[in-house]
Write a structure and sequence with these properties.
5 helices; five-stranded antiparallel beta sheet; alpha+beta; 34% helix
């Protein structure tokens, strides 16, 4: 029996434009009027009505647009969103090892989030693959490391006195754990590839 190997792509969704409700303001502000750091504005939370199913459908439609029936055929099996966090705009996508570069290029060409409700508009975005891994655990560890780095960078930008503003925008820490590590759920623990593979930080 042949075992199908997979790759896990850790992807960040970045927003170069402010959200529609804040488009009239030049910069987003916290509750007390303090200006939020640029890094926080760029790493905005994803709308809660965007689900993993809609995200996966968007990727498949983009594959069909770029690679036609050939791309749809070779990626139809094994493509799955294993983790999606609207709060950090991060998701982990599982794909066949033999075709991960095709999926990577497809994600790079996605420039808008789809309309998720009646009356909504497609939202401009940039999808950036930041890690390719042979196991989901390595992708999770990289997601945690980058989330910590972004929070530290934002705090340095605004200073210690504005830490409350960030918590008001990003939310309170969960359970006082190891910087939110409990928020990463391993959905594929029994299906992890045990092969040794070099991770590619992007």
């Amino acid at each position: 029996m042949v075992r199908i190997r997979h790759r896990y792509l850790l992807v960040n969704i970045l927003y170069p434009d402010p959200p529609p409700q804040a488009s009239a303001q030049p910069h987003q502000t916290a509750k007390d009027g303090a200006q939020l750091p640029v890094i926080v504005q760029f790493h905005q939370p994803t709308p809660s009505d965007l689900t993993p199913q809609i995200l996966l459908q968007t990727i498949r439609e983009q594959v069909a647009l770029l690679y036609g029936d050939y791309g749809v055929g070779i990626t139809s099996s094994g493509l799955q969103v294993k983790y999606f966090s609207p709060a950090t705009s991060t998701f982990i996508l599982r794909c066949p090892r033999s075709n991960y570069q095709l999926i990577w290029s497809t994600i790079t060409y996605i420039t808008h989030l789809p309309k998720t409700s009646r009356g909504s508009q497609p939202r401009p975005c940039v999808m950036k693959v930041i890690r390719v891994s042979g196991t989901i655990r390595k992708a999770e560890e990289e997601a945690i490391r980058r989330a910590r780095a972004d929070i530290l960078k934002a705090r340095r930008e605004v200073g210690d006195g504005a830490a409350g503003d960030l918590e008001g925008f990003l939310g309170e820490p969960v359970d006082g754990g190891r910087d939110g590590e409990e928020g990463i759920v391993d959905l594929d623990d029994v299906d992890n590839d045990s092969e040794e593979v070099d991770d590619w930080p992007c």
